[in-house]
Design brief:
The protein has 235 residues and is mainly alpha-helical. It has eight helices and two strands.
Length: 235
Amino acid sequence: MRMQGQEIALVGIMASLIVASGYVPIIPIFGTGYTISLGSVLIMVVAILLGPVLGTLTVLVGSFAGMILTGQGIQLLFFIPATIGALTAALLAWGRAREAIAIMALAILIWYSSPLGLELWYYPYLHIATLLAVIVTRPFIKPQGHREFKYGYPLIALFCMAGVLCDHLLGSTIAMFPPFELPSEAYRFILFIYPIERALICVVAATVAFPVIRALRSSSLPILGCNEDAVPDPP
């Protein structure tokens, strides 16, 4: 893919916003001592707006730079789950459900292949439920052409939830290993707390993304529902 000047500028601006929003804590992660920043919300919004290529690239740059600049130290590795979660949401929003379903299923498989996966077999219950919801709604997930954005708020929220939970499960898997080494008790403690945290991120992200997309429908920017040429058809 050869990026145009407008696309490069858009990636730079959005990545800068992700970095800046990383300084704004909004939701504590109970049992870990860490906090979810506003950046987690903006990541989903950017991914859905810009799509699987530009959106994922923007999140990769923004989340990596943000973790360095905010002094996250050993948490630096978590830019990887954030990027994969963004890709998942973007694929769904841009009508490529098959690839998104594959990523979600792979994240669950990786969990069950981890050291605590079988012991905590019930931990990804919400992730599995969301995967099933995506599979059920797949007939409604179609590529969006020029000014043809028709997704309602519930589907946008589902796309955000899929991305957020993919990020969460991969991050939870990484946290089992050094230097984090979270014990199984930590996962049990947040078993019924993490759905509330992730739902809050999804609600805020969908509430921002939905009106922004509608407002930009007549724009020439490479944004969902605005530029037919930027929306690839699924294979």
